[in-house]
Specification:
The protein is an alpha/beta fold and about 375 residues long. It folds into 2 domains: about 1-95 and about 270-364, Isopropylmalate Dehydrogenase (3-Layer(aba) Sandwich), CATH 3.40.718; about 105-265, 3-Layer(aba) Sandwich (Isopropylmalate Dehydrogenase), CATH 3.40.718.10. The chain contains 12 helices and 11 strands. The chain starts with a strand and ends in a 5-residue tail after the last helix. The structure holds nicotinamide-adenine-dinucleotide, 3-isopropylmalic acid and manganese (II) ion (MN). 3-isopropylmalic acid binds near residues 79, 255, 289 and 291.
């Protein structure tokens, strides 16, 4: 467990109470290993992520992370040095980000309810602009040039696409995608994968994506393959969220569209994610989509539900689906009726009050 910075420790504290109770109810034994890394440690010792911490983390089955990012530390030091390093070192090449509107949450789009917002973003998590390839020429002069290169490997793209299609297949077990036309259904299609890129401009990188997409999709004849340019995707996520089932996209675009996705599901306080190593050769890491939220940190008003829903994804990953469902079910029950809400959801309750109320719904 890495509590991290800002609201990270506040929301993780509530998620750990859920962990304890769910583990008891489901008869799951676990050992919790807190690892102290983040902005405070960096300011205290100058260490961002010592090798010893990476070794300790590698020995775990899964990692729960609050958030990193500290107003007193220059941007990128902690984000790249902790979050991205762990995502890369542990081959967490999929960033899985469900976008689901719970009943009882008023979504931001008129006329669109929970039945319209149920998609999942598969964000490539190890490549693209994130790898840190680039540099400066003539830094600090009037002729300065900055270069930051997007890396897209055929193997890296293909494994991400396959994950998305496999996920669509798994979702078919929950019923078929409502957004399919009757003609699609007649053709035997059950689910949909939308690739989101910018093939009309990024004619090298996204040409590779496009060719890989076409090839991989042939192995999944029952899945409809759809393509959207990222700009149009942003528009359509707002205008017609019901048109999306599984989205697969690049690291950078996935970062951006999942903050938009967070708003579709009621805000940053509800958006969960998992950095997944599908082969389980190293631990996967679960964290809310939101950051350290310095504007509300220390006030005890951060919404803990995103961290709890990330914990639910963690249980899914280790095969304890009932535990995951129990947490999602409790969030659903909490939100379905009037009760404690943090300010981001229009309430006036604290993080701890929402956390305590959630515990009461776990035992349903
Ligand atoms: P942010 O997600 O921290 O905050 C954006 C807005 O959402 C803020 O107004 C904040 O108050 C609100 N918000 C976030 N989490 C909330 C919660 N649980 N409950 C209620 N409201 C919540 O994004 P930012 O302000 O751009 O970034 C702050 C710092 O966090 C930066 O240092 C950034 O690099 C870092 N960051 C870290 C992660 C991560 O650790 N995974 C993710 C994003 C940003
Ligand atoms: C996220 C965050 C990170 C990202 C940052 C903090 C490196 O915004 O998890 O969405 O860009 O991936
Ligand atoms: Mn982000």
């Amino acid at each position: 467990m890495i509590a991290g910075d800002g609201v990270g420790p506040e929301v993780v504290a509530e998620a750990l109470k859920v962990l304890e109770q769910v583990a008891r109810l489901e008869g799951i034994e676990y050992a919790l290993h807190p690892v102290d890394i983040g902005g405070e440690r960096y300011l205290r010792t100058g260490e961002v992520l010592p090798d010893s911490a990476v070794r300790e983390l590698r020995e775990q089955d899964v990692i729960l992370l609050g958030a990193v990012g500290h107003p007193g530390v220059p941007p990128g030091v902690l984000e790249k040095g902790i979050l991205l390093k762990l995502r890369f070192d542990f081959h967490q090449y999929v960033n899985l980000r469900p976008v689901r509107l719970f009943p009882g949450i008023e979504g931001p789009i008129r006329g669109k309810g929970p039945e319209d917002v149920d998609m999942v973003v598969v964000r490539e998590n190890n490549e693209d602009l994130y790898v840190g390839a680039g540099g400066f020429l003539r830094k600090g002069t009037a002729e300065e040039v900055a270069i930051q290169t997007s890396i897209n490997s055929r193997a890296g793209v293909e494994r991400t696409l396959r994950y998305a299609f496999d996920l669509a297949r798994r979702r078919a077990a929950e019923g078929s995608f409502r957004g399919l036309s009757s003609a699609d259904r007649d053709r035997g299609l059950v689910r949909q994968v939308t690739m989101v890129a910018k093939t009309n401009v990024l004619t090298y990188a996204h040409d590779l994506w496009n060719r890989a997409f076409e090839e991989v999709s042939r192995d999944y004849p029952e899945i409809r393959s759809d393509y959207q340019h990222v700009d149009a995707c942003c528009m359509r996520m707002v205008v017609a969220p019901e048109k999306f089932d599984v989205i697969v996209t690049t690291n950078m675009f996935g970062d951006i569209i999942t903050d938009l996705g967070a708003v579709l599901q009621g805000g940053m306080g509800l958006a969960a994610s998992g950095n997944i190593n599908p082969e389980k050769t190293a631990p996967s890491m679960f964290e809310p989509v939101h950051g350290s939220a310095p504007d509300i940190a220390g006030k005890g008003v951060a919404n803990p539900l995103a961290a709890m829903l990330s914990l639910a994804m963690m249980f899914d990953h280790i095969g304890h689906h009932r535990a995951g469902d129990r947490i999602r079910g409790a969030v659903r029950l909490l939100l379905a009726q009037p009760g404690p809400r943090t300010p981001d959801l229009g309430g006036s309750n604290s993080t701890a009050e929402v956390g305590a109320a959630l515990l009461g719904f776990l035992d349903f």
